[in-house]
Amino acid sequence: MQVHPSRLMKPAILILCTGNSCRSHLAEGILRRALGADYTVVSAGSKPAGYVHPLAIQAMAEIGIDISAHRSKHLNEFLTQDIETVITVCGNADQACPMFPGQMNRHHWGFDDPAHATGTEEDQMRVFRRVRDEILKVFEAYASGRRDQRAS
Q1: Per annotation, catalytic residue among 16, 52, 97, 131
Q2: The CATH number of the domain where 91 resides is what?
């Protein structure tokens, strides 16, 4: 039995946002868990904030995903890597996104930025949870499609 070369490589998926402090980290954690070890999932920003938002870390911990070791990165860190798929999760990143070597796919799914939430910490957490749950639904559906595609 011959193995197709694409089955030997681990596809790399880059999730982009402007600040790389909330949405892209939520998506990275969710997609990494959903796809497992057969994929490399990373995130970056076009203008990184320099930190991962503490409420994003808390919102993910509530669903059993630890992103506390994530760091805010600039998309330039990945320009020389073989990125198979780029997914942008905010409008600014979609417009600022360059093409990557080997890039075959590009998707844009925009989500509200929970970092702009106001009010009490609980008010802000409600926004983080809502955005997390929206990202969860979209990225788990995407992961399911990728797993089906890889199995065929």
Answers
A1: 97
A2: 3.40.50.2300
pLDDT tens digits for range 70-104? 999 999 999 888 889 999 998 665 555 556 656 67
Task: Name beta bridge partners: 13.
Answer: 41, 85
**How many domains in the chain?**
1
Of the candidates 78, 85, 76, 79, the one whose C-alpha atom is nearest the C-alpha of residue 27 is 85
> pTM here?
0.88
Backbone phi and psi for residue 86, each to the nearest 5 degrees, phi listed first? -115, 130
Q: For residues 26 and 78, give the distance between their C-alpha atoms in angstroms, rounded to a whole number.
A: 19
Residue with tokens 């880059």: 14
Active-site residue, 22 included: no
- The answer to whether residue 17 is catalytic is yes
> Measured at the alpha carbon of residue 71, what is the angle toward residues 67 and 72, in degrees to the nearest 5?
120
